Amino acid sequence: MIKKYPLPLVSVILITYNQQKYVKSTMQSVLEQNYPNLELIVSDDASTDKTVEIIKSLSFQYKNRMVANYNQKNEGITKNCNRALSLCSGNYIAFCGGDDIFLQNKISTQVEILEHHEN
Known about the structure:
By secondary structure, this protein is of the alpha/beta class. It has four helices and four strands, in the order βαβαβαβα.
């Protein structure tokens, strides 16, 4: 883990569309990272299943670490991703699909490398 303070903010963007089966586990894997200075940006592309309900439930639980966007119509992966990117405030941005799982030390390992290796 990085010992230098302050730790850079990392924005993790998570784009979703009809991923009710996976999105809770995916969100938890991001929010439970061992890296403390992290925000999760979730952008849902007008899901027709229960994805939005799951996101809303977790966004209430993690309201200080999470920003959620809900598209009113399906705009496709590129526009949804660009919308999520526009909501980021981090020094670094990590991408996550709605059915991915992050290992607990993924972000801390990546920040350690980015902060200490110029190349």
